[in-house]
Amino acid sequence: MVAKMVRQNKNKKVLKLTEGEGRRKSGPIMGVDVHKDVLAYCILTETKIIKESQVKNNKKDINSLIAIIKKLYVSSVAVESTAQYYFKLVFRLIESNIPVLVANPQQTKSTQGKKTDKIDARRIAIAHRDGRLKPSVITSKEIFSLRKAMCNRLNLTNQATKIKQRLSQIFHQKDFKHKKN
Questions:
Q1: DSSP string of 37-72?
Q2: For the chain, what is the mean pLDDT?
Q3: Could you read off the pLDDT tens digit of each residue along the chain, which spans 181 residues?
Q4: How far apart are CA 114 and CA 161, in angstroms?
Q5: pTM of the model
Q6: Which of 1, 5, 50, 150 gives 43 a disulfide partner, CB atoms 3.0 to 4.6 angstroms apart?
Q7: Is 123 found in the same domain as 34?
Q8: What whole-number distance in Å separates Cα of residue 32 and Cα of residue 121?
Q9: Cβ neighbours of residue 170 under 8 Å, at least 6 residues apart?
Q10: Is 158 part of a structural domain of the chain?
Q11: Closest CA to 57 of 88, 98, 83, 99
């Protein structure tokens, strides 16, 4: 957290925080709990909940959600990074020039009380409003595709190695001679 010490009166020091550095955000903000098929969201201000609902995690409903964001003048959206399911929403928000913060689920996870999508979306929104979420890195679609391709390659290479090792064990058990490549 970045803070500035400001002198007030004679010897009294006051810690001044700027927005996004531990101070509450002002105006409407949104928290989104992401799932494979559903996006649960909560829009709130410093004093009240404006709207809580959910939409399907598809292009059509994401576009309608963006229309709601613009209509209600939402200044920032916090999205929980759940597997790969959050990418459609995040990339669409970025394309629409809507400020977005991607938060690690470890930050948004709550172990207390009843757990529902609606409550999770509210918790994400409140944590975002209060400046308690640290942003994750958001990559471009191209970089994301490259990273995904590299992960797939690594997984395939590991699988091939395991298969070769298993075959080698079977050949050894059956006393079968084979050429190694």
A1: SEEEEEEE-SS-EEEEEEEESSHHHHHHHHHHHHHT
A2: 78
A3: 334 444 444 554 444 444 444 566 778 899 998 888 999 999 988 888 888 998 999 999 999 999 999 999 998 898 887 777 888 888 899 889 998 888 877 766 654 455 677 788 888 888 888 888 877 767 677 777 787 788 888 888 999 999 988 888 888 887 777 666 6
A4: 45
A5: 0.63
A6: 50
A7: yes
A8: 5
A9: 176
A10: yes
A11: 88
Query: Are 166 and 96 found together in one domain?
Result: no
Task: Quote the number of domains for the chain.
Answer: 2
Per residue in 116-167, pLDDT (tens digit) is 777 888 888 888 888 888 777 676 777 777 877 888 888 889 999 999 888 8
Q: Which helix (H) or strand (E) holds 151?
A: helix 141-173
Residues 48 and 111 in one domain: yes
Which residue carries 């409903």 as its tokens?
61
- In sign, the C-alpha dihedral spanning 89, 90, 91, 96 is positive
Q: Does residue 159 belong to any structural domain of this protein?
A: yes
- Domain assignment of residue 106, given as a range: 29-129
The verdict on residue 15 lying in a domain is: no
